[in-house]
Every structure is written in C-alpha cells, then in structure tokens.
Amino acid sequence: MTIAKSVLIVFALVAFTATFVRSKTIMEGYGEGSLRPEQCPSECDRRCSQTHHQKPCLQYCNQCCDKCLCVPPGFYGNKELCPCYNDWTTQEGGTKCP
C-alpha cells in the first residue's frame, strides 16, 4: 500500500507541475506591451479568423492592439490575459475589444 500511495503522490505532483508549467507558458508573452505595433495586424487576423463579422472584428481588434499592444490568445475569450484589452469599453459599457 505504501508503494501505491507513493505512486499516487508522484502522479499528483507531475500533474500539478504540468498544469502550472502550461498555464505559465500560456500567460507569458501576453499582457499589455507584449507586442510591437507592426505585429498587430497579423495577431488580429488570427484573433478574428473564425468570426462571421470579420470587418468590425478586425477594425476594433486593431484599434485595441494599437492602444494596448496586446491581443489575447485564441479566437474568443482569454481577455483577462490582456487587462487593457479586456477593460476598454464602449460608451454604452460593453466591451470594445473582440
């Protein structure tokens, strides 16, 4: 039974470490100022590539990227990794950045 507990503990530590390393890797490289202005168009192309509203998505993404120098990972969500991008709102209080 001691071996089983040891194996279980080792497995739990490996799983925790893998999760921590993965989340740290995802978060590194994102955040305000993580991009250069010339990188914004390609990052916004990536961010907006799966929406049916390409033109407004690209327009607002590029505006947000120009201001924040950050575009969140993925096609949707993950805005918490770019606080400036996440917190910029419209006059009506909605989110400005896609």
UniProtKB/TrEMBL annotation:
One Pfam family in the UniProt entry: GASA
- Range of residues in the leader sequence: 1-23
Q: Which domain of life is it from?
A: Eukaryota
Respond yes or no to whether keyword Signal is given for this record. yes
Q: Which UniProt keywords apply?
A: Signal
Protein's UniProt keywords contain Signal: yes
Spell out the family assignment given in the record's similarity comment: Belongs to the GASA family.
Record-linked PANTHER family: EXTENSIN, PROLINE-RICH PROTEIN (PTHR23201), GIBBERELLIN-REGULATED PROTEIN 12 (PTHR23201:SF92)
Name of the protein this chain belongs to: Gibberellin-regulated protein 4
Q: Which organism is it from?
A: Zostera marina
Task: Output the lineage of the source organism.
Answer: Eukaryota, Viridiplantae, Streptophyta, Embryophyta, Tracheophyta
